[in-house]
C-alpha cells in the first residue's frame, strides 16, 4: 500500500506513514472484539469471509486506478478494511486449529502455523518488491488479490471439526 501511495498517488511522507499506521489500527481498536467474535461464530466461515473480502478490496485498487478515481482516502479506507480482515482471519485461524487437530497434534500444528506466518513475513515483502519492480505496483496488487482467492479455495477444503475435538468440553458461545 505505501508503494501504491508513493508510485501512483505521489503521496507525502506523512501520508505514507499514515498508511502504515492505519494498517495496524484494527489491532488496537478491534483486537478484543475480534477475539470474542472468533470464539462465538464459525471460525472457518469468518476466515472465508475475510479472504474473499480482502481479495475484493485489493482488486478494487487497480480497478479504481484504471478508472482514474483512486485517491489517498480510498487507499486509506481499503488499508484499514484489509487490516480488519487480517486481524479476524489470524484470530479465527489460530483458534480453528484446536477444532481440527487432536491435542497430541496441536503443538506441531501451532509450530507449522507460526513457521508459515514467519515465512510469509520474510518472503512476502521480497516477492512483492520483485513483482512491483517487474510489473508495477497496481499489477502486484492484482497478484496479491489473486493470492487471497487461492487461499480462499484452500480454506474451503479444510476439514470440519474433528470428532475428537468436538467432544471436548470447551467453554465458548455456540453458533
TrEMBL record:
GO molecular function: transmembrane transporter activity
Gene Ontology CC entries for this record: plasma membrane
Keyword set includes DNA-binding: no
Subcellular location, record wording: Cell membrane
Transmembrane parts of this sequence: 12-34, 46-66, 72-97, 141-160
Main location: membrane
UniProtKB keywords: Cell membrane, Membrane, Transmembrane, Transmembrane helix, Transport
Membrane topology: Multi-pass membrane protein
Keyword Transmembrane helix: yes
Alphabetical list of InterPro entries matching this protein: MFS, MFS_dom, MFS_trans_sf
Matches recorded under Pfam families: MFS_1
Domain Major facilitator superfamily (MFS) profile, residue spans: 1-175
Name of the molecule in the record: Major facilitator superfamily (MFS) profile domain-containing protein
Amino acid at each position: 500500500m505505501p508503494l501504491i501511495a508513493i508510485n501512483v498517488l505521489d503521496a507525502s511522507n506523512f501520508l505514507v506513514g499514515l498508511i502504515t499506521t492505519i494498517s495496524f489500527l484494527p489491532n488496537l481498536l478491534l483486537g478484543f472484539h475480534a477475539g470474542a467474535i472468533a470464539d462465538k461464530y464459525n471460525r472457518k466461515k469468518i476466515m472465508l469471509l475475510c479472504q474473499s473480502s480482502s481479495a475484493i478490496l485489493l482488486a478494487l485498487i487497480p480497478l479504481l486506478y484504471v478508472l482514474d478515481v483512486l485517491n489517498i482516502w480510498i487507499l486509506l479506507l481499503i488499508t484499514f478494511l484489509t487490516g480488519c480482515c487480517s486481524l479476524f482471519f489470524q484470530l479465527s485461524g489460530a483458534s480453528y486449529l484446536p477444532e481440527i487437530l487432536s491435542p497430541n497434534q496441536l503443538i506441531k500444528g501451532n509450530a507449522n502455523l507460526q513457521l508459515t506466518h514467519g515465512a510469509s513475513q520474510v518472503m512476502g515483502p521480497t516477492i512483492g518488491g520483485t513483482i512491483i519492480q517487474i510489473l508495477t505496483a497496481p499489477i502486484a496488487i492484482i497478484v496479491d488479490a489473486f493470492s487471497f482467492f487461492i487461499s480462499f479455495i484452500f480454506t474451503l477444503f479444510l476439514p470440519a471439526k474433528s470428532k475428537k475435538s468436538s467432544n471436548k468440553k470447551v467453554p465458548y458461545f455456540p453458533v
